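quick one, 494 residues, struct below
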Amino acid sequence: MATQKMLKFVSTPREMPEKRSAAERSEDFREIYREFAAQKAAEQASRCSQCGVPYCQSHCPLHNNIPDWLRLTAEGRLHEAYAVSQSTNTFPEICGRICPQDRLCEGNCVIEQSGHGTVTIGAIEKYITDTAWEKGWVQPSVPVQERAESVGIIGAGPGGLAAAEALRRKGFQVTIYDRYDRAGGLLIYGIPGFKLEKHVVMRRNKLLEDSGVEFVLNCNVGEDISFDAIRGKHDAVLIATGVYKTRDLDIDNANAGGVVRAIDYLTASNRIDLGDDVPDFENGELNAKGKRVIVIGGGDTAMDCVRTAIRQGAQSVKCLYRRDRANMPGSQREVQNAEEEGVEFVWLSAPGAFTGHVTGEAATAQERDVDGLPQIASVRIQKMRLGQADVTGRQSPEPIEGADYDEPADMIIKALGFEPENLPKLWGVDGLELTRWGTIKANFQTHHTSIPGVFAVGDIVRGASLVVWAIRDGREAADSIESFLTGEARMAAE
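---
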């Protein structure tokens, strides 16, 4: 009789891959988890209960066939597991590293709900595809038949890259335009190496090039090339720019020296990690070494900032968040990692003002103003309490009168989220409709915008969101673009 490979969650406890010690990992930008060994990956995969209704799958934006590739992994059939995983996800090894599984698949695992501890889905997903790369199973896309139609994609982030891969697989000619010198968007310049090492992204970019995707980098649409010129060169256009405009604070001295945007800070750190020269890092403006750092915000970007500051050798790192731990939007796993590494969280606190020079020892390090602005010396912190719930059911923070104090700081990082740029104005485009939030108005099923033949996906449509949603949008848009270019949509309309 065949041995039962699955349903081992009763006898086998949940285990994550070994995590490097906080002392060790705080000294570098390498990923913090070690790889699963083959036996351990199979053992953890065997804990899956093979549910008749897999909530892990239904709560994954890509609806990955998670129970199927867990079973194949438990049975040692890794090549097949990779094929199943790759069939629904363009970048499974990236999602395995950076997806907030505790809020998605793992958070909805049935055995987690029954108290046995979730299956370590993300770690196994990463293991499957990393093994596929090592074994040479990951190969460039070779379309069955080449097509003459071409598609221009603006933005080389996860949405644009996912669409490009799917379109090349269908045989279309694809060109990606991006403002940066490397493809990947926030995967390359926003997310730190300790969560996603850059070679993981670079090899995907190389695979797309080998598949026939053309990259036009250092290309700012509206300056180096017009949007109309891109439309003229291609049969369809996909906008996948993401959102990069930083939300700001309406307080005193919000732009003082020493107050920096999270995107600038993380981009500089990632460029240094990639071996680039960054003058603003070398002169100390975007370097936390030896400084008392305060990060304002409670999302995943804030977690990236505080953990980066630790690795740069900050004297102290504090995270200011206006709600409590339970209401923090960032991953609880990331909060735990940050606390282990020495970050202090200051809950129910908001900045009231930034103040300039102080007297005494702190003044000696602050003699130089930055760009003529007063150098930051401290933050006026306003203590908060949670009041009445708003229409979403979330309690709104309210200031506590008289409960404020000054906290010394040498560097303030604003990680308050991102908003869309006004693309019609930047690009000089007429007829591209926006929502009241400034995002591009696009059909959520077809991703078609108000301009015929122009599609849009990812954060520029959804607002700041997860990488996995951008991948889903990109794959869906590729199908819609195929229908548009082959006339299926037009014939259906007629």
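The mean pLDDT is 91.
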